[in-house]
């Protein structure tokens, strides 16, 4: 009887141990992939600068140049910069050597990077596309913010010179109290004939400010974000989100590299 109870107790203990192990958090392949993914642009900068490992640990020893080179290569989109044998192209290799050789760093505060944001917008009830370029601006001792430096979109494409079919103001409007101005609204694209072309110059930022300030433009969605860096002398590179299934090489990665 005692032997039976002992065996039964052992069996129950084993079952409880298995159940407890099932409830314990075990690192999964998904978790490893998630750690390997470059999830934010700040994380990209930290890995680029060799101040943080792929799993979020701080790097205190940065003198191992071979380690940093290997780490930098993981920030490239392999599908664009590596051949079928896993060999990186010569420009990527040259770039990595220059970054490590001179210990170039990326910093949020620098004015050497810009954000490109593509949006879907609604202007006067019509849907359209808007591309914004932004950069960081120092507004206090240690305070920064993003500001719009340029804008592109069909809503800004008004004619810059007098053209046939464009609206204009009659030479006898002064005789009728300029009542012709009442018919100059509507959805016209060529309005330059109304302006003194000696001083008129279409300014997209001013147009955007007027549209936003008067509630005439709504940003419906942000469709794509890219970052363009000019922080490494002789190079410019673009970083954007790359999605791949079941790979570590995902997230914010270098997708374009130019040497000049």
TrEMBL record:
Keyword set, alphabetical order: Signal
Organism: Marseilla massiliensis
Signal peptide interval: 1-20
Keyword Signal applies: yes
Protein's name according to its UniProt entry: Uncharacterized protein
